[in-house]
């Protein structure tokens, strides 16, 4: 069961500082988006000024704390081509985060975290992410996770291995202090191993989440190519009002392929950070734990996502690389 967590005033102060966005080096890796892998350019003074302005823009127009979406969250990774058995994140090609909203009104989304790990909370790191695919039926995401084989002229048959599950839990998207957070608590595994921690996936976490305007230019260090831009309906696009970033309200933005977003590490204590919304998330996790106990850890993941268990190695759920 989830234990009651201590409030941390110092951490709250650090989170408020994060909203001012003291820019550090921003990198992105995104082969599919035609972005150079592990870009190492430092932000120049102009980029720092623009990013600070964009982050402030995301804090306007939202009401006090309220949960705007809940659901189940899943983490998967895919090894690099040619790596039979990964030993650390350097051997990983992709980190996926899957959101399956409650209620069936919103689409399930497969999100790629471009740095192949969640943002460091203590450093309030900022990482780029985007929706690779959104689908009405979560089973439609299956093809994005399965093994693929392809032919090359120089190396013959190559294998893009199936994605491996890293964890499952519950999430909430919360409007908090005039900006949006996505927070989660893991149910599977009950306690993260070194494998989960190597991807910065802790037992719980909260991240400031901003949505990128597809009609504005991307910075030189991150973002999708011009032919990979989200096409929002007019009522959503108008919410930007020309701004480059806004808070995620409504969460419908995530229902569109190539929706780009910025994640900022905020807190490892969801109750201390989000108060009653965090307590609601704890209650959700308790109910999820009961369901997992009935189904079994592995079946809980594969049945919920309509995946074929035999196609996806499960060792990472039990603390072993695969």
Overall body shape: globular
Number of strands: 11
**Radius of gyration of CA atoms, rounded to a whole number:** 19 Å
- Report on the biggest sheet: 8 strands, antiparallel, barrel
Helix content: 10-25%
How confident overall, as mean pLDDT? Answer: 84
Structural class: alpha+beta
Work out the strand percent.
25-35%
Number of domains in the coordinates? Answer: 1
| Spatial arrangement of strands, main beta sheet | 1-2-3-4-11-9-8-7
Q: Unreliable stretches, pLDDT < 50, 5 or more residues?
A: 1-63
State the end-to-end distance: 28 Å
Oligomeric state of shown chains: single chain
- Succession of helices and strands: HHEEEEHEEEEHEHEEHHH
Total DSSP helices: 8
Biased composition (Basic and acidic residues): 9-27, 37-63
Region (Disordered): 1-63
């Amino acid at each position: 069961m989830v234990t009651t967590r201590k409030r941390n005033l110092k951490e709250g102060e650090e989170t408020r500082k994060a909203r001012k966005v003291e820019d550090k080096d921003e990198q992105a890796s995104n082969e599919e988006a035609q972005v150079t892998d592990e870009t190492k350019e430092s932000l120049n003074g102009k980029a720092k000024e623009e990013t600070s302005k964009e982050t402030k823009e995301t804090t306007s127009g939202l009401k006090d704390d309220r949960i705007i979406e809940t659901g189940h969250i899943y983490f998967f990774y895919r090894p690099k081509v040619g790596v039979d058995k990964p030993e650390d994140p350097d051997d990983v090609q992709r980190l996926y985060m899957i959101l399956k909203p409650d209620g069936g009104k919103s689409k399930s989304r497969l999100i790629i975290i471009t740095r192949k790990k969640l943002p460091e909370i203590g450093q309030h790191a900022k990482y780029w992410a985007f929706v690779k695919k959104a689908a009405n039926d979560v089973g439609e995401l299956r093809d994005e996770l399965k093994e693929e084989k392809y032919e090359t002229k120089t190396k013959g048959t190559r294998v893009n291995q199936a994605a491996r599950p890293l964890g499952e839990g519950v999430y909430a998207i919360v409007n908090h202090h005039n900006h949006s957070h996505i927070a989660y608590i893991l149910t599977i595994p009950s306690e993260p191993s070194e494998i989960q921690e190597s991807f910065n996936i802790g037992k719980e976490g909260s991240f400031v989440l901003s949505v990128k305007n597809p009609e504005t230019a991307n910075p030189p260090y991150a973002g999708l190519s011009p032919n990979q831009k989200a096409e929002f309906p007019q009522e959503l696009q108008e919410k930007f009002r020309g701004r480059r970033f806004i808070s995620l309200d409504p969460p419908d933005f995530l229902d569109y392929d190539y929706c780009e977003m910025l994640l900022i590490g905020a807190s490892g204590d969801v109750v201390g950070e989000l108060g009653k919304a965090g307590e609601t998330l704890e209650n959700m996790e308790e109910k999820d734990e009961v369901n997992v106990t009935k189904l079994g850890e592995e079946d809980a993941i594969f049945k919920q996502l309509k995946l074929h268990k035999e196609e996806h190695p499960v060792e990472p759920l039990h603390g072993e690389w695969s």
